[in-house]
Amino acid sequence: MSENRIKKAQFAPRFLSIRDVAADLKVSRGVIEGWLNRGLLPCYELPGSGKGGYRFRRIAEKDLKVFLDKYYSGPKEPVKRAPRSGNLKLLPRDRNVER
After folding, report:
1. Is 68 helix (H, G, I), strand (E, B) or coil?
2. How many domains in the chain?
3. Is residue 15 within 8 Å of residue 60, measured between CB atoms?
4. How do residues 18-42 score in pLDDT, each as one tens digit?
5. Is the backbone of residue 85 left (phi > 0), alpha (psi -120 to 50) or beta?
6. What residues does 60 pair with on adjacent strands?
7. What is the C-alpha to C-alpha distance for residues 7 and 51, in angstroms, rounded to an integer?
8. What is d(CA 52, CA 72) in angstroms, rounded to the nearest whole number?
């Protein structure tokens, strides 16, 4: 009987929280929630969700893999800005010029 439970546990789907998915993809939880709200990434709400304004949603690992293959290209690299020089001066605005 215990062997049967072990076999079922091996094939049971794995569910991830929004926080876990956000940490793995290096994006904010708001980004993940946006994907969920738009229907791009399927999720499951746990029984009892919605009490006190909280929603307990979980994402199946297989659904996440399908989503990543279809839509996600990875986190964007931060834009590197040119170093500031102290030589920039703001000129006074000519108030007599019509716009």
Report:
1. helix
2. 1
3. yes
4. 999 999 988 899 999 999 999 999 9
5. beta
6. 15
7. 35
8. 33
